[in-house]
Design goal:
Layout lengths: L1 H18 L4 H14 L4 E3 L2 E6 L2 E7 L2 E3 L9 E8 L4 H13 L13 E8 L3 E3 L2 E3 L5 E9 L2 E5 L2
Parallel strand pairs: 5-6
Antiparallel strand pairs: 1-4, 2-3, 4-5, 6-9, 7-8, 9-10
């Protein structure tokens, strides 16, 4: 998974350099284009059924599901954000998605056990008429879900 994460970071920074600060849907489209170029098997904006107490409530749209390839041995969700930082509401959203994934009857979605929060930093400072790009352009966190707990994974 390390090679996949390293490539994802490089790709996200490339996108940030070209269109960072635009709408999230445009950044998502650019990431999908880069996945196609890199031959990363993915689903863009698939629907996932959300469950409460094993009862379906409705559908949410995920940003991406990535299929195993290269050093990535499992299916995972990528949830994109565009904010100054990743916060607990983002983690809670991913937890809901990971908790519901195994209950779905879709042959790919029900195999998902990990997720990535990928945040494109929204804050650039402007000083003396010039923009100052943040040192860290993106934040990335990897999480798994087990025993009703979201577990942070060091990468």
């Amino acid at each position: 998974m390390k090679i996949f994460i390293d490539n994802l970071k490089k790709t996200a920074e490339k996108i940030y350099d070209q269109i960072g600060g635009t709408e999230e849907k445009h950044i998502q489209a650019a990431l999908s284009i880069e996945f196609d170029k890199l031959k990363v098997p993915h689903l863009r904006e698939p629907s996932i059924q959300i469950y409460y107490d094993s009862y379906p409530l409705g559908f949410l749209e995920l940003d991406f599901i990535i299929s195993p390839h290269g050093d990535l041995q499992e299916y995972l969700i990528i949830e994109m954000k565009q904010a100054s930082k990743i916060d607990d509401s983002n983690r809670h959203q991913l937890k809901s998605q990971l908790r519901s994934a195994p209950l779905n009857n879709h042959e790919i979605i029900n195999k998902v056990t990990k997720g990535i929060l990928l945040n494109f930093k929204k804050v650039e400072k402007y000083k003396e008429g010039t923009n100052v790009i943040p040192e860290k352009k993106i934040d990335l966190e990897v999480w798994s879900y087990k025993d009703n707990k979201l577990i942070f994974e060091k990468i």
